[in-house]
Design goal:
The chain is built from 21 helices and 23 strands. The chain is an alpha+beta fold and 670 residues long. The two termini are 43 Å apart.
C-alpha cells in the first residue's frame, strides 16, 4: 500500500536488540510455507463474531509462524483446531527464548502458559515438549527481586501485568512445586503475584492507562487479561479482568477510525505511526469490530480472543466502533495519575513496591521518583541491566546523592531534559467524522523532553495521516528516533477540527540526546493523498471526501531525498507554530472551496501566540502561555472526566462507568 519501506521501519523501531527466536529449524511437511496477505477493510466484513472469528482462524491456519517473539502464537490456533502439523521446533525455540531470559520473554511465556492450560493434552504435541514446557515455567525468573542478572524489562505498564499474570497462573498450575529460581512454592508465588494484579486492575479501571491508547501495547495488555479471564481461580480477579478488557475495547472504539486505532498514543513506534493499517491492534480490531486487517505483524491479542470461550464483546462497544456515519463524535477523557498524588493511589511509601508502581508510569528520572529509581538500581542489581547502562558512569554519585538528598534537586534542575519517559496525567481529545479523525493530548508536558509519546494525529485513511514532532535525532530508537522519538514535546491544543501545535525548545544542551535539532517536521505523505495543493502558506491534502490543511509559522520545505522524499515537511527553528484544520466535502463543499476558504482566512502568528479565524469554528486563539479561546471564550483543556462523550459521562476515579448508545447499555462496576 505504501512506497515507504515498512520492513525497514519495523526493524528500526524495536527497543530491544534481537526479538528473534533461535534455531527454529525447518517446518514439518504440510506446514504453510508462504505468507498469505490479508487486506485492510474499512467496512464491517462480517456482521457476527462467529463469522469474523472463523475468518481469522482460517487466516491463521493458512499462515506460517515466524522467528519473531510473537511468531509462535499461530501454533496455538493449530492446536485449538486440531489441524496440524504444528511447528513444534518453533515452540521449543520459544521455550529457549524464555530460558535465556531475554527481554520480552514474558510475551512468549504468556502464550506458553495458555498452551499449558488449554492444549497440553493435544496429540499434536510430544511428551518431550510437555516436559520441557513444565521445566521452563518452573525455572523462570518472575520478578526482579529473584536471583539472576538479566536485561528483561519488568516495570512498564504492560510488562507489569504480563509478568504478574504469568507468575500467578504458573503458581496456580504447580501450587506445591518449588520454583527453582526463587525457591518459592507455587502457592506462595500465586499469593504475591495476586497483590500486584489486584493493584494493576484497580488503577486501570479508576485512572486508565499511562501507556494511553497505545496501538502497540494494548496488544500486550490484553493477552494476560484474557489468560486471567479464562484460567484464574479467583472469581473476583476474573470479574475485574473482564471489566478492564471491556474498557480497553471501549477505548479503542471511541478513538478509532474505521478500525484504525489512529489517535494520540502514550507509546508507539515508527511503523505504526506512519502505517496505521499495520498497527499491532489491527488484527484485534478486524476480529472484534469487523474493520482493520489481519496483518500478521502482531497477533497476540487477536489469537487470545479467538482462543477464549469466556469473553463476549458487549454490543454497545461494537456499535460505537462501527458507527462510521455519525456526523460528529467528540470524545474527552483523562488517563493516568499525577506523581504528587502517588500516596492517594497507593504508592506513597519509599519501598520497592511503590518504586515499581511509580516506574510503570515512567518515573525513571522524575524528581519525585528518582530516589525510588536509585533504590531499585541497588536492590534489583539493575546496574547490570542493559536498559540502565547509561546510569553506570554516575553510579557512585547517584548512590551518595540519594543518601544526602541531592538526587532530588539535580533531577528537578534537569527535569525538562531527563524526565522523558514520564506518562503522568493526560487529557485526551478526539474528534471523529465519517471522513477524518483528529486526536490530541491536550498540552501534555509542553517543553519537556519526550520519548515514544505521540501527541497528535490527523487521519483520513489507513495511509493518509499527518502529525508533527521535534525529532530526537536521526537514530532508530527513542528518544533519538526520527519519527517516534521526541526531542522536546509541543503544547498541542485542539477544538473540534482545528488544532494548534506550539514548539518552544529552550534546553540548550541535553544529557540524553547527541544533539538538539534545529527544526520541527511533519509527516505529510504526498503520494498517499488524491491531491495535494500548496496555497497561501498552507499545504492542503484531499483523500476521498476528507480534507486537511496544514500551516507552519516558520514556513516549510519538502524533503527531497531519501525514504521520506515528498512525505516530510521540514520547518526551520526550535520555536514554531503549526496549525491544522480538517474538513470534509459534506461540510465544506469541494476541495477547491476548502482551499479558498482557509487560504484566505486571517491568521496571525506572533512569537508563540496565534490568532486564526477558522472558516468552520470562527475566531480561535492560543499561545504557549495563553489559554485556548474560541470566539473569545476560554475552553478548558485540563481536568477532563474519566470519559465524556456521546455514550458515557463518568467522573475521573469513579467506581462505576455506564455506557449507553443506540439503545444498548453496559454498566461496569468495580
Amino acid at each position: 500500500m505504501s512506497d515507504i519501506d515498512v520492513d525497514q521501519a519495523f526493524s528500526a523501531t524495536t527497543s530491544v536488540q534481537d526479538f528473534k527466536l533461535k534455531n527454529i529449524g525447518s517446518a514439518p511437511a504440510g506446514y504453510p510455507q508462504t505468507r498469505v496477505e490479508d487486506s485492510y477493510t474499512n467496512e464491517v466484513f462480517a456482521e457476527t463474531y462467529d463469522e469474523r472469528k472463523a475468518a481469522f482462524i482460517e487466516h491463521a491456519l493458512n499462515n506460517p509462524g515466524s522467528d519473531s517473539i510473537k511468531g509462535m502464537f499461530y501454533e496455538l490456533i493449530r492446536l485449538q483446531q486440531r489441524r496440524g502439523p504444528v511447528h513444534e521446533q518453533l515452540l521449543f525455540s520459544a521455550l529457549g527464548y524464555i530460558d535465556d531470559r531475554l527481554d520480552c520473554a514474558d510475551f512468549v511465556l504468556t502464550g506458553i502458559v495458555r498452551l499449558y492450560y488449554q492444549f497440553l493434552d493435544s496429540d499434536l504435541l510430544s511428551d518431550d515438549f510437555r516436559a520441557k514446557a513444565r521445566q521452563t515455567i518452573l525455572d523462570f525468573k518472575y520478578w526482579p527481586d529473584e536471583p539472576g542478572t538479566d536485561s528483561m524489562c519488568y516495570w512498564t505498564e504492560n510488562h507489569h501485568i504480563l509478568f504478574s499474570t504469568n507468575e500467578y497462573l504458573a503458581g496456580q498450575l504447580f501450587p506445591d512445586s518449588i520454583f527453582t529460581n526463587s525457591g518459592m512454592s507455587g502457592r506462595d508465588k500465586q499469593a504475591r503475584a495476586l497483590k500486584r494484579i489486584e493493584k494493576w486492575l484497580e488503577l486501570r479501571f479508576f485512572t486508565g492507562f499511562s501507556e494511553w491508547l497505545s496501538n502497540v501495547y494494548y496488544d500486550e495488555d490484553l493477552p494476560p487479561l484474557l489468560n486471567l479471564l479464562d484460567f484464574a481461580g479467583d472469581k473476583e480477579v476474573v470479574r475485574r479482568a473482564r471489566l478492564v478488557i471491556d474498557l480497553m475495547l471501549y477505548d479503542m472504539a471511541i478513538n478509532s477510525y474505521y478500525g484504525l486505532f489512529a489517535c494520540t498514543h502514550g507509546r508507539t513506534y515508527t511503523k505504526e505511526k506512519i502505517n496505521p493499517y499495520l498497527e499491532s491492534t489491527t488484527d484485534t480490531a478486524k476480529l472484534l469490530f469487523g474493520m482493520g486487517s489481519f496483518a500478521n505483524e502482531d497477533n497476540m491479542s487477536a489469537v487470545m480472543f479467538a482462543l477464549s470461550d469466556n469473553y463476549e464483546l458487549p454490543k454497545v462497544i461494537f456499535d460505537i466502533a462501527t458507527d462510521t456515519a455519525r456526523e460528529e463524535w467528540v470524545s474527552r477523557q483523562r488517563v493516568s495519575i499525577k506523581f504528587r498524588d502517588a500516596k492517594k493511589w497507593g504508592y506513597g511509601k519509599f519501598d520497592l513496591e511503590s518504586a515499581m508502581g511509580l516506574l510503570s508510569f515512567g518515573g525513571y528520572c522524575h524528581h519525585r521518583t528518582f530516589n525510588h529509581m536509585a533504590l531499585m538500581l541497588d536492590e534489583f542489581r539493575w546496574w547490570e541491566n542493559g536498559f540502565f547502562l547509561e546510569f553506570v558512569p554516575s553510579k557512585r554519585s547517584i548512590q551518595i546523592g540519594r543518601r544526602i538528598g541531592l538526587t532530588t534537586l539535580v533531577a528537578w534542575l534537569l527535569r525538562k531534559d531527563i524526565s522523558r519517559n514520564v506518562l503522568d496525567e493526560n487529557n485526551i481529545y478526539t474528534y471523529r467524522t465519517p471522513d477524518y479523525m483528529l486526536s490530541t493530548s491536550q498540552a501534555f508536558r509542553p517543553g519537556y523532553g519526550g520519548d515514544q509519546q505521540h501527541i497528535w494525529q490527523a487521519t483520513l485513511d489507513g495511509e493518509a495521516v499527518c502529525f508533527t514532532t521535534h525529532p530526537g535525532g536521526y537514530g532508530l530508537q527513542a528518544p533519538e528516533a526520527y519519527w517516534h522519538g521526541n526531542g522536546f514535546m509541543p503544547k498541542a491544543v485542539q477544538h473540534k477540527n482545528v488544532a494548534f501545535i506550539f514548539y518552544n525548545v529552550t534546553v540548550k544542551r541535553s544529557l540524553l540526546l547527541k544533539e538538539i535539532l534545529d527544526f520541527t517536521h511533519a509527516f505529510f505523505p504526498r503520494q498517499r493523498f488524491d491531491r495535494v495543493v500548496e496555497q497561501g502558506g498552507w499545504v492542503f491534502g484531499e483523500k476521498k471526501d476528507g480534507f486537511i490543511a496544514l500551516y507552519s509559522g516558520n514556513g516549510y520545505r519538502w524533503q527531497q531525498e531519501g525514504e521520506y522524499s515528498d512525505a516530510e515537511l521540514i520547518a526551520p527553528g526550535r520555536r514554531n507554530i503549526w496549525v491544522v484544520e480538517m474538513g470534509r466535502r459534506a461540510q465544506h463543499g469541494s476541495f477547491e472551496m476548502f482551499i479558498d476558504s482557509i487560504s484566505s482566512a486571517d491568521i496571525v502568528a506572533e512569537g508563540l501566540n496565534v490568532r486564526y479565524c477558522s472558516p468552520s469554528q470562527g475566531p480561535i486563539s492560543a499561545g504557549w502561555s495563553a489559554p485556548l479561546r474560541v470566539e473569545g471564550k476560554t475552553v478548558s483543556i485540563s481536568d477532563y472526566k474519566r470519559y465524556d462523550n456521546p455514550s458515557c459521562t463518568a467522573e475521573f476515579g469513579t467506581a462505576e462507568i455506564n455506557i449507553a448508545y443506540g439503545g444498548e447499555k453496559l454498566s461496569l462496576k468495580y
